[in-house]
Amino acid sequence: MKTIKVETPIYDSTSGIASVVLSVSKEENATLSIDFKTVLPFANLVDNDVLDFFIITSSVYGIDRFVNRKRNSVDGWSREIKVSFPVSDVNKWFSVQSKLQEFLSFLTGDYWQVEFHESKFIFPKGDLDVRYSKTFSQVNLFSGGLDSLIGALDFLKSKPTEHFLLVSHYDTQMGGPKKDQRDLIEKLNTFYPGQFVNLPSLKVALEETTEKTKMIALLVPVFAACVVAGVINKDIHMIVGAGFMLLSCCIIFSAVGISHTIESQE
Known about the structure:
The chain is an alpha/beta fold. Helix content is 38%, strand content 23%. It has helices at residues 40-43, 48-66, 69-72, 90-94, 97-108, 146-158, 177-191, 219-232, 243-256; strands at 2-6, 10-12, 17-23, 29-34, 80-87, 111-118, 138-141, 164-167, 169-170, 196-198, 202-206, 236-238, 262-264. Strands 1, 2, 3, 4, 5, 6, 9 and 11 form an eight-stranded mixed β-sheet that branches. A five-stranded parallel β-sheet has the order 10-8-7-12-13, sandwiched between helices. Strand 2 and strand 3 (17-23) form a beta hairpin. Helix 2 (48-66) runs antiparallel to helix 8 and helix 5 runs antiparallel to helix 9. The protein is globular. It starts with a strand and ends with a strand. The relative contact order is 0.18.
């Protein structure tokens, strides 16, 4: 079994990067980099539960890419992973421990044991840019792929008098998505000027990776969108090909007490 402690994030105000160490031992660890400056203005305005979940899901993304599946599998695929996450309210998170374990095991095909320890991270202050003060109808996830592009176009064409906010994620170890997002947003701005605002694509990346993950990657923008949606008080819209991801997110939201509606169109 791989036992990992997710350390409390350390924020560098110069770079805007929050570093999260995934610690196995003194000799074995990895550092997850989160472009926290992007979500910082929103982070000060939402509940701690939402921020905890954002750190948890970002950490899970890093762990999934850090723990080599071939070397750590117990049956040729599934890994046994025991992890302790930093949270603001340990007792509250232990009350949903089993649900979170089932959620992660279902998504990755691994055996997860989760524990929690007190986070001492204090979120720095950040001012919300005036462009986010518009009235938005919803928050859309935007990966740069065809599904999310269809969702954006559907909104733009059917609701020309309304506005929405795009939230994206990229990993420096995985080439392509950031450029695709940038190119598509430029085109959308050409044909639908002023109808949407895009949050700068959120970087969440591990310094060194051994695994490539697809499904877990969706978790990061989902919970980044929760941080944003909590401020503008709107629902999150995503087009996904896997309804179980949507269902799993809703189960955890309900258990922890996060009140956001995620709409899906398959």
